[in-house]
Amino acid sequence: MSGNPALVMRLVASAYSVAEKAGAIVRKVLQSGELGIVEKTGANDLQTMADRLAQQSICASLSRRFPKVTIIGEEELPAEEVQADLIENGQSEEILKKSCPEEYKALKEEELVVWVDPLDGTKEYTEASRCLHLRAAAPTPHKGSDTSQTHTALWLLDNVTVLIGIAYGGRAIAGVINQPFYNYQLGAGATLGRTMWGMPGLGAFGFQLQEAPGDKRIVTTTRSHSNKVVMDCVDAMEPHEVVRVGGAGNKIIQLVEGKASAYVFASPGCKKWDTCAPEALLHAVGGKLTDMYGNPYRYDADVKHMNSAGVLATLRNHEYYISRVPQSVLQALGSD
After folding, report:
1. Catalytic residue among 45, 48, 85, 122
2. Residue of 51, 161, 195, 220 marked catalytic
3. Quick check: is 118 in a domain?
4. Position 163 in a domain
């Protein structure tokens, strides 16, 4: 560890360890089979015990170490004492060894805002749990059904992430993404989960950066929140392939690991806690995330939470995708 790491590096180092703790909580709740599902605004907006416990763990752990940092979590939870076993005090030693970009060295706690999505991809998480439960409960499964249910569950679990984004001056300046079930498909004995992080000016870590094939436009978009406007916009990109997956964090992973060329979501369904961490990670590798007009989002403490004008993210060629957004889509969305 360097002698006196800058505040923001200590915050990122803590967020890394806290995200890993949250990922372990998400796995534990799934394994228990007791998800405690609550519908917040409908069947496509769910909250589970994992969402609640992971958010308690993240927010309580970070606020104890950084009491003046503003922390905004997705879940509206009652004020209550957080169990001691949910608190994570660790910090990533590797991150503490990194040199802080000059422009962030003097930042103070009260200047920083942390945006938390404790479980991005809750719908996929609950569906995966259902698949696994059906497999376990079936006394004499039909030939092939057990394999099919397992395959579906594993694919759905890949959609799940824990997101912790850090903002300064309205900009996303650092992001941590934990994939709790990474390596799940390798079976018993595999080390589950991975944690990626990035900071513009410093780089991104925890994954191998790849670009989608240059001769193909592969668009990733929503799996469960589509409508005519969303699909009109996707079709206007003239994609060679469309990849429908859950979770904003997962869609950015598709971009940075070369499985997609653009993330296109012409809908107001995404929130600031969905995009802050992914945007920082994407910016750290030279990518871009904007609304459908090409305008950046702001992450100040007092902004509205909804990304009303949609989300368009790319690793390269952002201007091309912005130029393809139909006027009818822009009119339907309005400005943010």
Report:
1. 122
2. 51
3. yes
4. yes
